[in-house]
Design a protein that fits this description.
The structure is a single chain. Helices cover 42% and strands 14% of the residues. It is an alpha/beta fold and 349 residues long. The protein folds into two domains: 2-285, Phosphoenolpyruvate-binding domains (TIM Barrel, Alpha-Beta Barrel); 289-344, no CATH class. Strands 9-6-5-4-3-2-1-10 form an eight-stranded parallel beta sheet. Strand 4 (119-122), helix 5 and strand 5 form a beta-alpha-beta unit. It is globular and about 65 Å long. The chain starts with 28 loop residues before the first strand and ends with a helix. The relative contact order is 0.10. The structure holds Citramalyl-CoA and magnesium ion (MG). The site of Citramalyl-CoA (CQM) has 22 residues, from strand 1, helix 1 and helix 8. Keywords: Lyase, Magnesium, Metal-binding. It is an enzyme of class 4 (lyase). Mg(2+) binds at residues 158, 185. Its EC number is 4.1.3.6.
């Protein structure tokens, strides 16, 4: 374990000091773009104003013979658009640590567009040692290329070993931004019997006890509940953000929305969008319900210093519910600052 007083020291001479607190940003969706696809890349300038984060994906879903084109395409799209002007985050997902592409990914991207890059998403993180490696390398590259804003790191939780080490990953470095669930790789790593990318499974259910000849009620359960809960606890305990990952069935918007909403209610800040049709779903889900915001605002107003006990509509409020209300009001303010339509609905002063 590193000494506490050394935790926030830059890891290379000339590298920027790590953030003490994460920048406060609205990240309802991390929108995936395949940078080797010229047609999709051409839409990025227009897309940038409509999503909270644009991510250029270099890893899985990019064919091996297109890795270089994807890297070049990412540099081109990063240079072509002023993401900061619309408050849009610019991220990339690099190839895995054991792949032949990762060094070229990081060397090229930090050299060419390191000052524009907010977050590097690292796939298949197994333990804190993976984060330490990336942390050190990024510091060296930031120093070499004069990058002044620290590049953050986001881990994908997508192996059984990673889940076993989730707390240590979350606390591995002050560079940690957060974590996303990777349900496809994780299912494979765990030996789960599903070919779906996220979402439920019709055979994963509980069944009521028999009661005579009556048909037995049965309901589908959430395969990802345990993992999301574990990830949210690890992230929030370390002051970083948890995200649901991808939902692969673009034809089933209702199931995507249900999965996103479960993650939102459990504490996640956002989800990935892989297709334009999922952006509106994420916007709908990762903003608090206006009725909840109105009630939360009443709680905050009824307890100006956040202490004591009061009754509102027959419901007891105290210091703890005040904190719950603050979570909702603070998020609503963040959403309202970016979305004038919701600002009008929330009516927050
Ligand atoms: C699947 C694909 C090929 C279907 O692309 P398509 O063109 O066949 O689909 P479409 O329905 O015909 O597209 C309609 C329009 O939207 C455009 N479009 C389509 N997608 C996008 C996009 N993302 N951003 C912006 N525009 C997009 C597309 O170009 C088209 O434009 P047009 O009307 O002008 O012809 C395409 O959607 C795509 O490449 N999406 C990203 C896929 C991806 O990044 N996958 C990896 C992340 S998930 C993962 O890795 C797992 C994980 C975490 O690791 C683990 O669980 O283990
Ligand atoms: Mg994966």
């Amino acid at each position: 374990m590193k000494l506490p007083r050394r935790f926030f020291q830059p890891l290379a001479t000339g590298a920027p000091a790590p953030f003490r607190e994460l920048p406060v940003r609205l990240e309802r969706m991390i929108h995936f773009v395949p940078p080797h696809n010229d047609k999709v890349r051409a839409r990025v300038p227009e897309l940038a104003g409509t999503v909270d984060v644009v991510l250029g994906n270099l890893e899985d879903a990019v064919p091996a013979d297109q890795k270089e084109a994807a890297r070049k395409g990412f540099v081109a799209m990063a240079q072509a658009t002023d993401f900061a002007a619309t408050g849009t985050g610019l991220w990339t997902r690099i190839n895995a640590l054991n792949s032949p592409w990762i060094l070229d990914d990081l060397f090229t991207i930090v050299a060419e567009v390191g000052d524009k890059l907010d977050v590097v998403m690292v796939p298949k993180v197994e333990g804190p040692w993976d984060i330490h490696y990336i942390d050190q390398l990024l510091a060296q590259l930031e120093a070499r290329h004069g990058v002044t804003k620290p590049i953050l790191v986001h881990a994908i939780l997508e192996t059984a070993e990673g889940v076993a080490n989730v707390d240590a990953i979350a606390s591995a470095s002050p560079r940690m931004h957060g974590m996303s669930l990777g349900p496809a790789d994780l299912a494979a790593s765990r030996g789960m019997k599903t070919t779906r990318v996220g979402g439920g499974h019709p055979d994963y259910r509980v069944i009521a006890d028999p009661a005579g000849d009556a048909p037995r009620a049965s309901a589908q359960q959430d395969l990802w509940h345990y993992t999301i809960a574990k990830m949210v606890d690890a992230c929030m305990a370390n002051g970083i953000k948890a995200f649901y990952g991808p939902f692969g069935d673009f034809s089933d918007g209702a199931a995507c929305e249900a999965q996103f909403r479960n993650a939102f209610l459990m504490g996640c800040a956002g989800a990935w969008t892989l297709h334009p049709s999922q952006v509106a779903i994420a916007k709908r889900v990762f903003a608090p319900d206006p009725a909840e915001v109105a009630f939360a605002a009443r709680i905050v107003e009824a307890m100006p210093d956040g202490t004591g006990a009061v009754m509102l509509d027959g419901k007891m409020q105290d210091d703890a519910t005040w904190k719950q209300a603050k979570v909702i009001v603070d998020l609503a303010k963040l959403v309202a600052a970016k979305d004038p339509e919701l600002a009008a609905v929330y009516k927050l002063g």
